[in-house]
């Protein structure tokens, strides 16, 4: 979901309103790509943890 711009905007709004400074996401390539965009757009520290069945 983080790869979609509208989803990231909503997420950033929520994170800022709750004064959240970091985010941990579990997933695969799509999660990492979206998380990187989210981190760049919101200046929020993010950590990605592998949780995929991709081979």
How would you describe this structure to a colleague?
- There is one protein chain.
- 49% of the residues lie in helices and 22% in strands.
- It is an alpha+beta fold.
- It has one domain (5-50).
- Strands 1-2 form a two-stranded parallel ribbon.
- Helix 2 (29-42) links the parallel strand 1 and strand 2 (45-50).
- Helix 1 (5-17) crosses helix 2 (29-42).
- It is globular.
The overall number of domains is: 1
Q: What is the number of helices?
A: 2
Strand order of the largest sheet: 1-2
Q: Look at the helices and sheets and give the structural class.
A: alpha+beta
In helices, the fraction of residues equals: 40-55%
- Measured by DSSP, the beta-strand proportion falls in 15-25%
Number of strands: 2
- In N-to-C order, the SSE pattern is HEHE
- Average per-residue pLDDT, rounded, comes to 89
Distance between the termini: 21 Å
Biggest sheet layout = 2 strands, parallel
CA radius of gyration: 11 Å
Parts with pLDDT < 50 across at least 5 consecutive residues: none
Characterize the overall form.
globular
Cofactor: Mg(2+)
Keywords: Kinase, Magnesium, Metal-binding, Transferase
Protein name: Phosphofructokinase domain-containing protein
InterPro entries: ATP_PFK, Phosphofructokinase_dom, PKF_sf
């Amino acid at each position: 979901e983080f790869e979609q711009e509208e989803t990231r905007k909503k997420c950033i709004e929520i994170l800022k309103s709750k004064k959240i400074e970091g985010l941990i996401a579990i997933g695969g390539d799509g999660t990492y790509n979206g998380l990187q965009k989210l981190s760049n757009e919101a200046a929020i520290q993010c950590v990605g943890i592998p949780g995929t069945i991709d081979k």
